[in-house]
Amino acid sequence: MQSQPSWSFYNIVDMDIDMCDFEFSSSFTTTDDSSDVSSNPIFFSSFPDDVQFVYPLEQYSPYVEDLDAFGNDQFSGVELEDVYKWMEGSESGSPLEQHSIEGSENTFSLHQHSADDENERSLGSSNKYSETSPDVSSVVQPSIVFPNDDIEVDNQLSILHLLKAYGEAMENGVTELADVILRRIREKSSPIGTTVERLAYYLFQAMDKQGDYLKQESFKNYEAAFKAFYQIFPYGKFAHLTANMSILEAIPDDVETIHIIDLDIGDGIQWPPVIEAIGCRRSLRLTSISWNEGSFDSVPTQLRFEETKRRLQNYAQSCGVKLKVEEMSMEELVSEIAKTKKRGRGREWLAFNCATALPHLGSRCRSRKQVMEFLEVAKELINSTNGTMTLGDGTGLEERMRNLREFGSFFDGYLLHSHALLESVELQFPSHLNEARTAMESLFIAPYVSLNACFRSWEETKLGSSLESGLGLKGLRFSKENLLQAHEMVRGSQYEVKVEDENVAILNWRGTPLVRVSTWR
Fold first, then answer.
1. How far apart are CA 470 and CA 504, in angstroms?
2. Element holding 262 (H helix, E strand)
3. Which residues constitute the signal peptide according to the record (predicted)?
């Protein structure tokens, strides 16, 4: 039994009209009278009436401007001592003018685009990892065409060189120089500038009072921003669609109850399509894992869960589905499943769902320790119950990046991923709504681009293994229908879907991985 969803989704083609109704706060230029503004997002008081969930067989054709890249000239990297001299002296004598542009390694890629008569540069839109070397920076091919605005391009290039030099200074332990470089980068960055300028701003915004105020102002519009962000961009929809279809396709015919264990159910936005697909012939259990560590925001965790539970149960009732929503710790889950098996309830089938670092989650992202604990328990229970697991990962850390042992090379790869994320937001967003875009970036992109997030990723990288490689489970092959749905979602855009090892689907932006979804059994 299927029911028409009780909410509609924004029409992507008419996004310019829809977003004009969001009424984003207009003041991001002063820090006066901001002490009473909560720095934490609100939760939805009801299921968002205008947020559509991802259903199979729907047609997707996200609007993305087709911007061509030009240029193929190389420019060289900047040595640390040159950067230091550059910052001490005038910029007219920058190291860029003093180095040969031939045969350079350790550089970024720049492209010129045309959008609304503005020139934009792009980092690494065609970057590839070397098959023989894990050094990201040594294989990124740079290119550049200078626009007419010499001042603007000089700022772009100086930021790129400063970012490169910062990574090298940190790698070599030259913290004094790194601090000097950091200050120069902050002077040149802007939350309303080009992609490179915004990348630099969000990377270091935690150290900026203006950045903190911008985040507080953006939280005033959290609900509207979340609705629009989930609608416009495919990051969350891609992860939810592929995971949901994998779960539904793997359900055995003879089970009576489907039991889905979610790492963090959040606002529950992933599960209405599954509720509809289950129908009235089977019952559904949704278990969200609770953690001892504090909640992500000022809303108490239990209050947030109860609100999500109410919305999901109301929706299940409208679909004629028997649904039980609960929250328990990992220890309680293991004990509960053991008791269930002992009582002989063998017709309950387990599906584990783990989503981490997906952009729409913003700062509500579980720690790697929590994720690893969840995956370890999932592996043990799947092996004993023949269940399945879906893993969505938005960190952008490919397996080859995890072999890196030098911070500078890792930092290059981190910048490429962060730039691709920001660029995908910019080029898929109406240009006359830049203020709304800034609010969304502050809420949902900044947590993954910040320097703190970079250092956390670096520490995880040094552990030497990805979440996928440590599972110890068999890959569950994606069906052709599932992949067809994913390809259809991004058809006509500059996103693309790639498949690895038959059980890993990757959402790329111009060749740069943004989201990975894998399925296991």
1. 15
2. strand 257-262
3. none
The length of the chain, given as a count of residues: 521
DSSP β-bridge partners for residue 495: 509
Going from N- to C-terminal start, the domains of the chain cover 1-521
Distance CA 444, CA 223 (A): 12
In whole angstroms, how far apart are CA 421 and each of 43, 158, 338, 362, 371? 25, 21, 42, 13, 23
Statement: 1-521 belongs to CATH 3.30.70.270 = no
Backbone angles phi and psi of 368, in degrees to 5: -60, -35
Residue among 347, 89, 56, 149 at smallest CA distance from 157: 149
Tokens encoding 285: 């259990």
Helix, strand, coil percent values for the chain (each to nearest 5): 45, 10, 45
Run of H or E residues at 385: helix 368-385
Give the span between the Cα atoms of 201 and 211, in whole angstroms. 8
Q: Which residues of 388-421 are buried (b: 16+ CB within 10 A; e: fewer)?
A: bbbbbbbbbbbeebbebebbbbbbbbbbbbbbbb
The per-residue DSSP string of 205-244 comes to GGG-HHHHHHHHHHHTTHHHHHHHHHHH-SHHHHHHHHHH
**Residue 125 amino acid letter:** S
What is the C-alpha to C-alpha distance for residues 7 and 12, in angstroms, rounded to an integer? 15
Task: Give me the percent of the chain exceeding a pLDDT of 90.
Answer: 47
The CA distance from 44 to 267, in Å, is 8
CA distances from 517 to 97, 289, 389, 478, 514 (A): 44, 20, 11, 10, 10
Note the pLDDT of residue 342.
Answer: 75
Indicate the residue type of 320: G
CA 91/CA 271 separation, integer angstroms: 54
Given a contact cutoff of 8 angstroms between Cβ atoms, the answer to whether 520 and 476 are in contact is: yes
Which tens digit of pLDDT belongs to each residue from 196-244?
Answer: 999 999 999 756 667 778 888 888 888 889 989 999 999 999 999 999 9
Total-model pTM: 0.75
* Residue owning tokens 């109301």: 314
- The encoded tokens of residue 252 equal 């055995």
- Residues whose CB is less than 8 angstroms from the CB of residue 521 and which lie 6 or more positions away in sequence, other chains included: 250, 382, 386, 387, 388, 389, 473, 474, 475, 476
Between 328 and 24, where is the model more confident?
Answer: 328
Please spell the DSSP secondary structure of 161-189, one letter per residue: HHHHHHHHHHHTT-HHHHHHHHHHHHHH-
The vertex-521 CA angle with 234 and 57, nearest 5°, equals: 35
CA atoms of 505 and 184, how far apart (whole Å): 39
CB 471, CB 375: distance < 8 Å: yes
The beta-strand segments (E) located in 44-102 are: none
C-alpha separations of 71 from 113, 122, 149, 509, 510 in Å? 10, 12, 16, 20, 16
